[in-house]
Amino acid sequence: MFLEQFKPFVGQYFEGEIIQGAKDGDGFTGKRLLMQVKSYNDREVKIPFYVGDDKSRTWILTYSNNVIGLKHDHRHQDGSADEFTFYGGTATNEGSNSIQVFPADNETCQMIDYACQNVWWITMDGTTYTYNLRRIGSDRVFSVKFDLSKPVHSDFQPW
Fold it and tell me: Whole-model pTM above 0.90?
């Protein structure tokens, strides 16, 4: 199962690089990008995504009814919930062990109207993890890739 691939990486941090969608002023360019596999069980994986000193983002993958969901937990610097948090999508099928695709769900469409056209996908092959976003009908695309063969030291923790 897709989520099981995260189990060997619990507690580890990995550096990433933007491979598509980088542009000046985007808040990501020129900053250290880290992911941490914070927790794993057979129903949920939490992956904080640190951008420089910003610890406000956590990707949450959940497994229920034979499909995987992706949510984005966004926090303010004091740890309180951002206005837009827990948006994301749900896979429309079981996907595969190497890729899961998440079209925006109804909750996301109601929360952030322009995100209703979002499709996220995550690839995981045991050596590389990618997080990707495409906004259908626009030129909005974002991809970040992490090398899982080279853990790095960090003591960052999400808010």
Answer: yes
